[in-house]
Amino acid sequence: MEKEYKTEEEFLKDYDPSEFDQLSMTADILLISVSDEESNNYRKTSKKMMSILLVKRDDFPYKGKWCLPGGFLNPKTETLEECAKRVLKNETNLSNIYLEQLYTYDALDRDPRTRVVSTSYIALVDKNRLTEMINPNTSWFDVVLLEEKNNIVDITLDNGKDTIHLAIKKELREKTTDRYKFIEVKNDALAFDHALVILAGLERLKNKLNYTDIVFNMMPEYFTLGELQQVYEVILNKKLLDPAFRRIIASKVEKTNKMKTGEGHRPSALFKYKGKK
Amino acid sequence: MEKEYKTEEEFLKDYDPSEFDQLSMTADILLISVSDEESNNYRKTSKKMMSILLVKRDDFPYKGKWCLPGGFLNPKTETLEECAKRVLKNETNLSNIYLEQLYTYDALDRDPRTRVVSTSYIALVDKNRLTEMINPNTSWFDVVLLEEKNNIVDITLDNGKDTIHLAIKKELREKTTDRYKFIEVKNDALAFDHALVILAGLERLKNKLNYTDIVFNMMPEYFTLGELQQVYEVILNKKLLDPAFRRIIASKVEKTNKMKTGEGHRPSALFKYKGKK
DNA sequence: CCAATAGTGTCTGTGAGACAGTATAAG
DNA sequence: CTTATACTGTCTCACAGACACTATTGG
How many other CB atoms are found less than 10 A from the CB of residue A75? Predict the structure, then answer.
């Protein structure tokens, strides 16, 4: 028999959450950066690549597999975003970085332990800011290949020791939008559904590049337009034409009187992010 | 003291989820449609308005306030999207409608009972499809005003009996993107953080209109280009020029040999959605 | 000089914005 | 005929794509 409550206070006093079905949540973070691959030619500039941070799992489940940094939410004390920041701080000692909610993953069997719903976040960082890695199981993986053919995306990640090959099928959810269902076709190395999170995150970043200034969260304070263009090119996965790129970017950056020299070719001006036009 | 496990099976056998902090989740649905406001002039076409579905709360907390249709997730049996579909089916008897995850809301105090994290969904429907409303507490509210001035958004909702005024402040999260933190400035009628969900959902729809064919999820099978243009105009909240609109839409629709007549002016051809160009 | 990147000038085609004009129904 | 919407033709301007050209360094 149900009790009748007159006021919200009275109702809340009697409320017992443990009567209801509960579950656990995690926040998982896709930390993306752009790194330099050193060049063999003194004249040539270093080739840039995207890289993402992975952690080798010490414990079951998925012991020995790689996964995104993440952790269980403490429901009494923190929000999911705070949880993501805490995890990131613990793993990399980074704080004050760009963080954006990506998607909430909740397949029934995504965690073999019990029902765990995960809200994923994208984090962006300028690699120069990354000094010490706290967790020794943590490693940067370069995105050495990212290619889509016939709705199958092939991704190759490499950290210098391990190489991870992923293949993910994209199935159009409905003809009216560009939403896809991602299905793992090949994944021997990544735990949980994190391969799907990585692809979703890289695609989100690619899209946002075109209509926001999000890229500057991955840049140092001073940069050349050549460097900036390379970052665009590696994220968009295509070459851009110099004049067009400079036209678009011109209103967003500010030329400083600093120059970058000693590169075996004409020096280039250093720029700063100016803020939105 | 921790036990050492050799295999994942062994580990899972001993795993007890209740040892860890758990919480409840809900799925909340912002169901959006476009309705006709009948005209007083036999010649004039009816004015279109967006409308959203709200439910009057029968129980504590927020008893008597309006909220989005939503319900608690059963962690053992369903995904959040399935939960959203179940709720929608129960309230409106609708199934097979467009559903898209919007955002996961998780402020510590968003539910006075206990920690409840809510994943919100946008649902779109052609109002002609909506026949019977099952829950008598359910009502369509027209968006009679939606206006942004100095980063304050004013929204007025009206269901013919009740009028709801909302004011939400938009605070830019960082200068590199277009992300805003939404803060309720005025809200006497909506429960939880649902005013924020409504604004986020309407803005998402507005954005998606420009780069997807999402609008056709709100259209009947046959429609005139004038009707379609009106739907665009009410969602984008601005007038469009006929020739420009027709150029953009031309590749997406297919002219049928049906006509719409009897409107007191030149009849117009009926079109069908053709699928992506 | 050479190789490599920095940086600019300019043509061209596409496409959105704008406006004006014609067409056709009901009353 | 009037009124209101349906539908089309065409000009202009902004801007992305493309290509060619000049500038400047280290070796």
Answer: 23
